[in-house]
Automatic annotation (TrEMBL):
<feature type="domain" description="RNA-binding S4">
    <location>
        <begin position="1"/>
        <end position="60"/>
    </location>
</feature>
<dbReference type="InterPro" id="IPR050343">
    <property type="entry name" value="RsuA_PseudoU_synthase"/>
</dbReference>
<comment type="function">
    <text>Responsible for synthesis of pseudouridine from uracil-516 in 16S ribosomal RNA.</text>
</comment>
<dbReference type="InterPro" id="IPR000748">
    <property type="entry name" value="PsdUridine_synth_RsuA/RluB/E/F"/>
</dbReference>
<dbReference type="InterPro" id="IPR036986">
    <property type="entry name" value="S4_RNA-bd_sf"/>
</dbReference>
<dbReference type="GO" id="GO:0005829">
    <property type="term" value="C:cytosol"/>
</dbReference>
<dbReference type="InterPro" id="IPR006145">
    <property type="entry name" value="PsdUridine_synth_RsuA/RluA"/>
</dbReference>
<keyword id="KW-0413">Isomerase</keyword>
<dbReference type="InterPro" id="IPR002942">
    <property type="entry name" value="S4_RNA-bd"/>
</dbReference>
<dbReference type="Pfam" id="PF01479">
    <property type="entry name" value="S4"/>
</dbReference>
<dbReference type="InterPro" id="IPR042092">
    <property type="entry name" value="PsdUridine_s_RsuA/RluB/E/F_cat"/>
</dbReference>
<dbReference type="GO" id="GO:0003723">
    <property type="term" value="F:RNA binding"/>
</dbReference>
<dbReference type="GO" id="GO:0160136">
    <property type="term" value="F:16S rRNA pseudouridine(516) synthase activity"/>
</dbReference>
<dbReference type="Pfam" id="PF00849">
    <property type="entry name" value="PseudoU_synth_2"/>
</dbReference>
<dbReference type="GO" id="GO:0000455">
    <property type="term" value="P:enzyme-directed rRNA pseudouridine synthesis"/>
</dbReference>
<dbReference type="InterPro" id="IPR020094">
    <property type="entry name" value="TruA/RsuA/RluB/E/F_N"/>
</dbReference>
<dbReference type="InterPro" id="IPR018496">
    <property type="entry name" value="PsdUridine_synth_RsuA/RluB_CS"/>
</dbReference>
Amino acid sequence: MRLDKFLCKSTDFSRAESIDLIEAGQVRVNELVIVTAQTQVHENNCIMLAGRRLVARPSRYIMLHKPIDTLCSNVDGDYPSVMNYIQVDRAEDLHITGRLDADTTGLVLITDDGRWSFNIINPKYHCEKTYRVTLRDPIEDGDIDELVSRFEQGLQLQGEKKLTLAAKLEVITPHQVLLTLSEGRYHQVKRMFFTVGNRVVGLHRQQVGKLSLDIELGEWRHLTADEVSGFNCYESVI
Ligand code: URA
């Protein structure tokens, strides 16, 4: 991680204050004075500020059950931010891993570990997200096989060059399906159903990777160490 970020993670200094301290020659990394804030450091390095060794606070990993009419953003907008539901220190250091639309409910992951989020969001790592989708028009029994195969083969979304990656569609009832994606394009689920002539009238994310939503609407909890490390197994498949 960058040296200025390390300072923020191990002290109460802001990013700007950390940069000032580094540029003023106050920070040593393995005995050397480092004056460039972008210098990459490792948590095992001996990083000293004013004669004191700094230790980074552990990263935080949170699951939230997002209610409808909330925003996956750090600040309020047309709707309140999901961050209003979470009571932790330094909430401003957290970011949302894979946003949901305001009218979507379900599993949202929140962290201050950028590398961890990257593994989850980047389609290269094939981390699957499962949505329960409620549809305006019923799917007739005779159309199921063709629809499943169209989602599997990839759809051409309006305004995009590349087909969507293979998606798994499971029909639960004529109006309700489970859809599993390994990428997260803008309004992807809604646009996929629009492409096949239907409309999404309800959307809920129930699983990300192996992690299933297991808390009530509006609740949040820290992930366990096993749940956190469960996301580090994703291999590049592209
Ligand atoms: N796809 C959508 O269309 N909306 C979401 O919130 C998530 C996936």
